[in-house]
Structures are given as structure tokens and as C-alpha cells.
Amino acid sequence: MKSPVAGMRSEIDGSVPFVGGVTMGIGASIGLFALGAILTFAVTTNQVGAVNLDVVGWILMLAGVVGLIATLVVWAPRRRRPADVVEERRVYDDRL
């Protein structure tokens, strides 16, 4: 059987296989917020060309807060549900 690739449908049930592990929503949100705070409060230059770094910093902090709230609202309830046990099997190793 071929290894699943992101975006490809499973041959068995038609669902998209889960590839890549746990999403990094909280970490990315905190990173955006920290980068925005650095640009807003720590950088002494206000403008680089036509770009105001204070405004970019506030936008990144806002995006970080919105992302954090969205991650907690959308993903937190799904992670708390216990997985259903479909079948329990006991494996005995006779090689010992």
C-alpha cells in the first residue's frame, strides 16, 4: 500500500489521511504576538521606506491574539474528547 500524502484521499474510506502530527496554532499565535510586540515596542525606527513598523507590529499582535483565541475555541474542545476504543487486542510475545 502506498504511503499517504497530504491532500490525497484514502483508497479505503475516501477520507483525507492525517499527515504531519499536531498543528502548531498556539505556538504560531504566540510567535506572531511576540514579533509584533518587538516591532512595536523594541524597534526605535518607526518607518522603513513607506512601511510604518508600529502599525505592522500592532497588526501582528492582533493577528496573534485572534489566532490564539481561534485555536483555543476551535481545537481545544476536540482535543479533550477521549478516543473511542474500537477493539482491544492483547499481544503476547512467546519469544522470551
Shape: elongated
- Tell me about the largest β-sheet: 2 strands, antiparallel
Strand order of the largest sheet: 1-2
Unreliable runs? none
Structural class by sheet pairing and helices: mainly alpha
Protein model, in words:
The protein is mostly helical and 96 residues long. It has a domain at 25-78. It is built from two helices and two strands, in the order H-E-E-H. It has helices spanning 25-42, 53-80; strands spanning 47-48, 51-52. Strands 1-2 form a two-stranded antiparallel ribbon. Helix 1 (25-42) runs antiparallel to helix 2. The chain is elongated, with a radius of gyration of 22 Å. It starts with 24 loop residues before the first helix and ends in a 16-residue tail after the last helix.
Précis, in short:
With 96 residues, this protein is mainly α. The protein is 48% helix and 4% strand. A hairpin with a 2-residue loop joins strand 1 and strand 2.
